[in-house]
Amino acid sequence: MASKLVQLQSKACQAKQFLAKNGGAYYKKLLEENKQYIQNPPTVEKCNELSKQLFYTRLASIPGRTETFWKELDYVKNIWKHKSEMHVPELGIATLFGLECFCWFCAGEIVGRGFTFTGYYV
């Protein structure tokens, strides 16, 4: 355990040195590439205005999102009603989608527990 701590400290020190050496140049390059998104002058009032614009724009998009959700739900209901008419490729896609959802659920559970695996003794 102590050797892993020393390795972690070593890697952290290397990362710190890399950032100290290259961080400023990367920061300047990033700002230069994205200068069209920067508001001048960068005041608190402008930041508050932009955050309100983002919030209310997202709020205004909710009706469109709910409409899309109900359309997709109706599509899934229709497929479920006519499941006997589904072909093998469609069943494969549905199976892969279900498997992907299950894997994301499992990954979310692991992340929620702080990246610990419970119930397994290694």
TrEMBL record:
Q: Which GO terms describe its molecular function?
A: proton transmembrane transporter activity
One GO CC term of this entry? mitochondrial membrane
Identify one Pfam family in the record.
Answer: ATP-synt_G
A single Gene Ontology biological process assigned to it is: proton motive force-driven ATP synthesis
Q: Where in the cell is it found?
A: Mitochondrion membrane
Cell inner membrane as a keyword of this entry, yes or no, is no
Query: Which InterPro entries does this chain map to?
Result: ATP_synth_F0_gsu_mt
Q: Which UniProt keywords apply?
A: ATP synthesis, CF(0), Hydrogen ion transport, Ion transport, Membrane, Mitochondrion, Transport
Q: Which family does it belong to?
A: Belongs to the ATPase g subunit family.
Q: What is this protein called?
A: Mitochondrial atp synthase subunit g protein
